[in-house]
Please model this.
Amino acid sequence: MKIISHPKNTKFTLYIKQLPVYFSFYNFFLTKQYHSQYLSFLNILNIFAGKFVGMQLEELKSKVTNILKNKDQSVTKRLHSVCQLLRDHVEYYDWVGFYFRNGNKEELKLRTYAGEKTDHEIIPFGKGICGQVAISNENFIVPDVQAQDNYIACSFTVKSEIVIPLFKNGKNIGQIDIDSETSDPFTEKDERFLEFINQEVAKIL
Ligand code: SME
Model:
C-alpha cells in the first residue's frame, strides 16, 4: 500500500529536526560579547528616544506661549487649545485637562479638556489623584494607576497619570491633569514641561 504523507506532517518533522540548529543560533547570540553589544545598542536607542521627547517638549513650549497670549480668545478657549495641542503632539498624552478650585468650595471643577468625556467634572479635595494634589501642593506621577488606592478611574484604558499643581501668587488654584494609555511614560522632563505650562497659564488668569 502506498503511504502518502500529509504536507503538514512533512513540514512539522522538518521543524523538529531543525530545532537544535535554532537553539545553537540562539546560544551564539546570547554569548556575553553579543549580549552586551545588544544592550549597548538598546541604550543608544533609549538615549535617542529620551532626546527626541525632550526636543519635542521644548518645541511645544513656544507654541503654548503663542496660544496663551492670543487675547482675541477667551481664557477657556485658549486653555482648551493648549489641551488639544498637547494631546495631539505628545504621543503618550491621551487625556489633557485643567481643573480649578470651584469658588470657595473644597472641590475642583473641570474647566476644559481634550480627550474622552469624563464623568468627573467635580472632584472633592482629598479624593483621587487630583484631589490629593489640591491639598499636597506637590507634583504627583502615577506610573501604574491600578497600584493606587485613592484613584478615580475615568476609563479602563488609562494606565498612568500625572498631575501638576498650578500656582497663582504662591497659591494652589488648580492643576493640569494628564492621563496616559501607556504604562509608566512620565519623567522629570514632563514635570518641568508641565510646570512651565502652568506658570504661563497663571500669567493670563
Ligand atoms: N484620575 C483622576 C480623576 C480625573 S480623570 O483622570 C479625568 C483622579 O484620580 O483624581
Strands lie at 95-101, 107-114, 122-124, 140-142, 160-168, 171-180. The chain has five helices and six strands. Residues 32-68 form the longest helix (37 residues).
